[in-house]
Design a protein that fits this description.
Elements lengths: L1 H16 L5 H17 L10 H19 L9 H9 L5 H6 L3 H9 L3 H12 L4 H8 L3 H31 L1
Helix pairs in contact: 1-2, 1-3, 2-3, 6-9, 7-9, 8-9
Length: 171
């Protein structure tokens, strides 16, 4: 168990960090996830599939952690939705080409937790909105709205980072 923990600690922590509000929360998810993994290690039939198996355990642990926490309502104002429709299209490829993984992860971590969870489950894990709604116990339309808002906020944050970098290099 110790060797398994040490071997996959960094990988599992990186998965948990995508879903946690803080490093402390990620470590709590990580430890709970490893306990679940140790309990079900005998169910792992193919040792070569350990990473996807462990990732699934860590993601499910993060979802369980989210469910146990008191929910804070995230409100989207009508003005925000109106501005979203009027927002000019941002060149996502140009933005992403100028940013490192650290910049993107930092922007992801600044999203409100419900948006970050839906974004991570949909984009990183490949869940459908129906699966996300079932797992997070929310309406399917709420999952879609959270993803839309997460995408909008991420584009704005990443665009601001590239603009800041250009401003600094021009001087």
């Amino acid at each position: 168990m110790k060797a398994f923990y040490e071997r996959f600690y960094s990988y599992a922590l990186s998965v948990c960090l995508a879903y946690a509000d803080s490093r402390e929360d990620a470590c709590e998810m990580l430890n709970d996830g490893f306990l679940k993994a140790f309990r079900s290690l005998n169910q792992l039939k193919n040792p070569e599939a350990v990473l996807p198996w462990l990732r699934r355990i860590m993601v499910n642990t993060a979802i369980d952690y989210y469910r146990k926490r008191p929910q804070k309502a995230v409100e989207i104002s009508a003005e925000t939705v109106g501005n979203q429709l009027a927002e000019p299209h941002l060149n996502d490829e140009a933005i992403l080409a100028q940013l490192s993984a650290e910049h993107i992860l930092a922007a992801l971590h600044r999203l409100p937790l419900p948006y970050r969870l839906v974004f991570s489950l949909y984009v990183l894990e490949g869940y459908s909105h129906r699966e996300i709604a079932d797992r997070l116990q929310l309406a399917e339309s709420t999952s879609r709205a959270h993803l839309t808002e997460a995408n909008r906020l991420l584009r704005l944050a990443l665009n601001a980072q590239t603009t800041d970098r250009h401003e600094r290099t021009k001087r």
